Sequence to fold (180 residues):
Amino acid sequence: PMYGYIYHEYVNNFMGNQICMALDSTDYSYTYRLAYSFACGDMFTIVLNNDYQIVDAWCLSKTINKDVALKFIKNLSLWRNKDKEFLHYGKMIKPLNYSSNIKEFVHEDGTILSDKAVLTVAFSFSNEIRQYFINYTLEEQTIILDKEFEYYIDPISKEINKDKIIKIKPLSVVAIRRKK
Fold:
């Protein structure tokens, strides 16, 4: 997300109508696009068909599981609202490395896109850095960091845990924090 990396402090883009992200119709292709948009700092877009069902894109007829889509959007929006110093006003910076499972998607032309099952993005604001890990899959995922960090799984209570192996529930986010 180069545009967001450079201009995040000054713009609030939107996810788009998803007509150019022609991934296969796996259960997690739509949630992947939501997670990617969250990491870019974009607002979410929901494309509806004539029957008011959520669909992959204007030009595609595959309907999306409404409960899954809305649950994930609700979780991501909660973070955007409660951690807005970072997610709205922060400066996007290079995230720390981590290990995660890999998911594969097939493009319309048959080429394969491989990406981590947990996406990440980092922002600095004031004297702190927050790095968000976004599990877009329908299964719990584990990430492994190089060292222990304080992290929290709920932007409201901000209950702090500390570890370098972090389990992330399906369709959810955790954030680590560190000083600049």
